[in-house]
Amino acid sequence: MDEIQTRLTEISEKCVQSYEAWRKGMSDEALRETLQENIHELRKVASRLEIEIAMSERDRMASKPIPIPPHRSARRGKGHVSEDNNETLSPSDRQDSSAPVTEVKKITRRPRKPKAANGDD
């Protein structure tokens, strides 16, 4: 048996025993504290198990490429350069070809008139 399984088995047995003892003598402070300590240890083992599950998921997911989220792929404009292969993508090559294509126009301002040196405007 591995460490987590051993700890889980031992702590759950202790927790059940301390729960039964506490149920018989609910007014005993020492029994209540023992039960709380065993519950805390059970939580620690459960947390360790959750960490192990998350780590195994992370390792399994590391081999899969992460897809581009739809909200990001919809923002691509004409002539966007793909991060994957540095090719220019046309609107028909995009993942979400149903998204409307909008072009952003650059707004230019007229230059300001220079202020007069003598304070006359």
Outline of this structure?
The chain has 121 residues and is mainly alpha-helical. Helix content is 49%, strand content 3%. Helix 1 (3-24) packs antiparallel against helix 2.
Polypeptide structure, described:
- By secondary structure, the chain is mainly α.
- The chain has helices at residues 3-24, 29-61, 70-73, and strands at residues 80-81, 88-89.
- It has three helices and two strands, in the order αααββ.
- A hairpin with a 6-residue loop joins β1 (80-81) and β2.
- The chain is elongated, with a radius of gyration of 33 Å.
The level of helicity is 40-55%
Count of alpha/pi helices: 3
Radius of gyration: 33 Å
Strand-residue proportion: under 5%
Give a count of the beta strands, DSSP E runs of length 2 or more.
2
Task: Give the class from helix and strand content and strand pairing.
Answer: mainly alpha
Instruction: Please describe the biggest sheet, giving its number of strands, its sense, and whether it closes into a barrel.
Output: 2 strands, antiparallel
Query: What's the N-to-C terminus distance?
Result: 89 Å
Q: Catalogue the unreliable spans.
A: none
